[in-house]
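Repro:
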Amino acid sequence: MLLSGIFPPITTPFYPDGEVYHKKLEANVERYSRTPVAGIVVQGSTGEAILLSDQERRDVFKTAIAAAAPNKVMIAGTGLESAHETLALTEYAASLGYDAAMVRTPHYYKKQMLPPNLLAFYRTVADQSALPIIIYNFPQATGYDIPAEVVVELAGHPNIIAIKESSGNLDKVKKMVEGTRHINRQATVTETFEAVTPRMLKAANAASVKESRELVSVAALAGSAESMERRAPSPVREEAATKPSSSAVTVVGKLKTRQKEVGFQVMVGAAHQLEPSLELGAVGAILAFACPAPTACYEIYAALKEGDHALAREKQERVKLPAQRVVSDLGVPGVKYSMDLNGYYGGPSRLPFLPLNADQRIEIERLMSNIRT
């Protein structure tokens, strides 16, 4: 699966009393679906997943994917402290149609989090998961930093496709990129090399079948058997529509796909270091700062993709300080208030987070004044 591009790890909206505000979640997801982001991460750190009950996580998963556009890659944050619970939540996300699972490093029993423990944990999850696995490393929150050597070893597992590296350590990003270059995998993509997932293929096929049936119904109402024969594809023709039209392109409904070599994919989580991370070989990013500013983050990625390194650096400089201050220093409440300023619903966070004070709000308003949504 191709994971290139920008992914916002969306927040969880709450009412003032702390209950999940599902209507605002739907509205946020629908709006992100109209931006140039490659996909959406549900129940990551910015989503306050650790502050939700198991049932609330499941309900949020269900609401978010129902509101998402079919062409966006949907990633579920399913990492819990045990492999058993992680697999249970991953299985539920798979049943809803999510495309991949992002699994944070277990960390509570830090002295036991040795390489053999992490290798066994991730391999067990990957062996049994119906979804491809993205390792999630966020030592600022967990207090545990998975070694690059362990990531390189895990990268050889066929169902572990990527890592979200949020440590901000550029040397580590470089080490993981170089250490996994030997891994060769194929991913299905569109003709323009955008991501295609099994969920997207299923939707494209269903749309094709629906269109065929509608054509048959219209012809039947017209009373023209000849028109029905001419316009409605036979089972043989319909099956042929999913076969390759050439050695390079396969057609499913109206979706034309091809294969692309992707290998193991390193993604990052620090917006203030996006440009240098991409220059080192990261393929994309899951960025909390993309929650209030998805387009501003995407513009950095797009400039590099087009080979305009000077523009990428200029765009990076513009978001560097706001991203550091809003995300790294003020955390989820800062992200949510920035969203409120840019037309999304941020709203309150759950305790132990406290609301921002007046000075912090004024600072964010100043920092975000020139940041595109």
